Amino acid sequence: MAKKLVLISGASKGIGKAFLERYKTVEDVVAIGMNRTGSAGVGLDLMDVGAVNEFVSGLDLGGVENLVYIHGIGVDKFEPKGLPHIDEDG
Questions:
Q1: Which residues fall within 8 angstroms of residue 84, CB to CB, at 6 or more apart?
Q2: For the chain, does the N or the C end have fewer beta carbons within 10 angstroms?
Q3: Are 19 and 70 spatial neighbours (Cβ–Cβ below 8 Å)?
Q4: What pLDDT digit, counting tens, does each position of 23-50 carry?
Q5: Residue 16: burial class (beta carbons within 10 Å; 0-12, 13-18, 19+)
C-alpha cells in the first residue's frame, strides 16, 4: 500500500472527479473514488451507516502513513432547505 490513502466522495463528476484524476497521478498515493452508483470506483451511500462501516473495516491500511478524505459532493439531502449553507459562526 502507498504511504498516503486518499478517499474522495462525489468522484463521478465536478470537483470530486478532478481530485480523483489528480491524485491518481501522484506517486505513493492510492486514490479511491466513491459515489452512490460506483461509476467512480466504489459504490457507497454515505447516509448508510452499515455500508460505510463495512467499507472502512475492509480498507487495507498496512503501510499507510496519511489518510486524506475529500468530501467532493455538492448539495445533498442533508443540506438545510436543499441549498449549501455557511456555519452560523462563519
A1: 74, 75
A2: C
A3: yes
A4: 999 999 999 999 989 998 999 988 899 9
A5: buried
Listed residue (59, 1, 55, 61) closest to 29, CA to CA: 1
The DSSP-derived string for 39-78 is TTSEE--TT-HHHHHHHHHT---TT--EEEEEE---S-TT
DSSP at 85: -
Q: Are the C-beta atoms of residues 25 and 15 closer than 8 Å to each other?
A: no
Cell numbers for 89: 459562526
Count of helices and strands (H, E) across the chain: 2, 4
Q: The pTM is what?
A: 0.77
